Amino acid sequence: MSAKPDDTTHAAGAAAIRSETIDVDELMEKYDRESRFLRISGVWAAVVKTIAVAFSLFQLYTALFGVLAAQIQRPAHLMFALTLIFVLYPFRRGGSSAGVHPLDLGLAILSVGAGLYSIFNYESLMESSGLYSNLDLAAAALGILLTLEATRRIVGLPITIIASVFLLYALMGPYFPGFLSHRGFDIKRITTHMWFTTEGIMGIPLGVSSTFIFLFILFGAFLTKTGIMDFFMDLSNAVAGWASGGPAKVAVIASAMQGTVSGSSVANTVGTGSFTIPMMKGLGYRPEFAGAVEAAASTGGQLMPPVMGAAAFLMAEFLGMPYVEIAKAAAIPALLYFTGVWLVVHLEAKKTGLKGIPRERLPRLLTVIRKDSYLVLPLVGIITFLCEGATPMRAALAGLALCVAVGMIRKATRMNIGSLLETLEAGARGALGVAAACATAGIIVGVVTLTGLGLKMGEGLVSLAGGMLFPTLVLTMVSSLILGMGAPTTANYVITSSVAAPALLKLGVAPLSAHMFVFYFGILADITPPVALAAFAGAAIAKANPLKTGVNATKLAIAAFLVPYIFVFSPSLLLIDYTLGGLLWMMTTAVIGMIGLATAVEGWYLTKMGWWERVLSALAGLLLIDPGLTTDVVGFSILASITFHQFRKYRATKVAGRPAAVEMAIPMREEVEL
Question: How far apart are CA 232 and CA 259, in angstroms?
Answer without folding.
Answer: 11
